[in-house]
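chain below, 787 aa
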Amino acid sequence: MDINKAKILDQKSQLSPAKRELLEKRLRRETQSEAQLTLIPRRSQASPAPLSFGQQQLWFIDKLQPGNSAYNESLAIRLIGTLNAIALQQSLNEIVRRHEILRTTFTMVAEQPMQAIAPSLNIPLPRVDLRSLPPQEQEIAVKKLTTAEVAKPFDLSQEPLWRYTLLQLGAEEHILLLTIHHIVFDGWSVGIIFRELSEFYTAFSTGKSSSLPELPIQYADFAIWQRQRLQGEVLENLLAYWRQQLKAVPPILQLPTDFPRPKVQSFQGGTQSFILPLELTERIKTLSQQQGVTLFMILLAAFQTLLYRYTGQEDIVVGSPIANRNREEIQELIGFFANTLVLRTDFAGDISFRELLARVRECTLSAYSHQELPFERLVEELQPERNLSYNPLIQVMFILENTPTEALRLPNLSVSHIVPENAIAKLDLSLNIYETLNIYENSSGLTGVFRYNTDLFTPATISRMVGHFLTLLSGIVNNPDQKLSHLPVLTAAEQHQLLVEWNDTKTVYSQDKFFHQIFALQVERVPDAIAVVFQDQQLTYRELNRRANQLAHYLQGQGVNSEVLVGICVERSLEMIVGILGILKAGGAYVPLDPTYPQERIAFMLSDSQVPLLLTTQKLLTQLPKHQAQVICLDTDWTRISTESEQTPESNVQMQNLAYLIYTSGSTGKPKGVLVTHEGLGNLTEDKIRTCHVQSDSRILQFFSLSFDASIPEIVMALGSGATLCLATSESLLPGSGLMQLLREQAITHITIIPSALAALPQEELPALQMVLVGGEACSPELIERW
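prediction:
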């Protein structure tokens, strides 16, 4: 089809039903005139019938996943009134007689799948009598039977590939269930079935003859013609276009999902419906007319914008089905003619929605003019990376259904449709928009249905998606010149939650409580409880407080008061904790220096901080780089320190004074010193105790290096709550069986750890463990699930 004709077809959605019908007739006449010399011929009845390209793809899928019901299509029709069940069965079988595709199965001939067409086929109409059930139980039974029918797979080598069942609910109430495999059926076929069922049922129930003419060709004729046509220059021109259009196409649209993508698709699906407000619908249509684009284009552009905002990808690929019935001979055939167009839109440049519309219009019209290449043949040509966890080329679909479906009219019966609960999703996500016409008010409305893969998304996420889509549409019609990145997406409720509720982080902290004062309160409350443990050594809260007070008095005698920095470079030990508390009680600020760090890094921190005093041990003196600090050894100098007072010292420290100076890792360059006040340290203490649910009987592992900021909450939430802080050697903290043994023997209740270390722990029971806090690296969902 040339591009001008594609434009005309695309503009049909903006016309009234009467004008639309005239335009369709005109296009059919033109198409028929152009094709007079190349009418699809009838095949020889003896010749084998190959599969169409679309059928071949579904046949391969069935072979890969036998028993898969993902491609079952279903209809449920409620019939109220006097039903002639015999005429109904005759009518259904007459449709089977009329359309060879409904008598078709698929078999192997010379190692190739072929269509096997039965000369005749009479399908019985099973009946299920539900009249004995109460109305409420009837509806439950109908739901179960309908769901079971949709889920029951077909064997493509066995006839029939469509089935029907009649449920009787009362003397004048029935439900007809129709189930058919997609390999012999598409959405357009629904209208054909309804039209012919109306015609044949009227004829059989009244004894009159049908006026339907015989079909000019059958589906197998089309399949043969399609394969003969799509070769040589015609095929090469189509392939050349699509090769260029989909060059370097991204393999997958990276939508944020609630669950990890499974290795193999299960096609488990769910749906959520919504209605577009009438005022919004009218404004969308007005904007589409002003911009010279169709309703399909503007809704597609809005949906792609939503995907762009979700993914951050500037190359958005969406699939869209097309009837692909652009020849007169196939208009009245039941069968699988539908094709999928790959619509790729460039979002580069932070453009406005109005600019995006121009891109979408060009992409869509160009795709329409090259629609004849089957999607399956395109995939075969492009050879995209195959993965059982997602579909090739497209994982998201957009559909606008605005062509009125042929109504089913049966004499003496009121007919209504039931939407079966089809829990199948062939793709990650699809959005169907339906335009419903109100002939009495000469208006139309829009309703939408999101179908999603439940392996990837929760219903709550799709509900938010509905709200985001409606909010985005409102923002578009209010200001189509706004940049895509600035268009509103969050609903009013979400904005309030984000800007007000989640920002309401005000917490009442003890504004006048230093960490060492919070510790002192625990000394009064549980003086004989174990405060800190290291191997076979331990200190009670009373003992730890006494030693820290002695050190604080000694440090004050060396000139330590507020804002004076004191370095502490000791191995993991009880002295390490005594040193920290002693510095804080003296009013100074500690600077942690891990003795296992490289000499160059320790030298930099000593030089940069210019600490006047350094707490260490005799063992480490020879390992330290050159420095100007006065050295105090917590082991050999303790004899002098222990003569100091055991009472809490007085200091002039204020909440705004420094509590500690800690250096960053330097991974982005030179390490940087971070200054933290007593106010911040006190707030951290109260926050960690509250959020980690630390109790007096908790046992908290001190896992991280004292020079790493994660060590600070470990220490303060233990000593600020009356719990026990458990120290360990560096060797026993190595991830593996040694750390697991330590956790078990020390009955650790709280641990802070990096995910890679957590992953290395054996899968064993830890009855005492209550909380694992991970950080520093990305943590996989599988690891979270395991723990």
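The chain has a mean pLDDT of 90. Residues 367 and 392 are 18 Å apart (CA to CA).
thats it, cya
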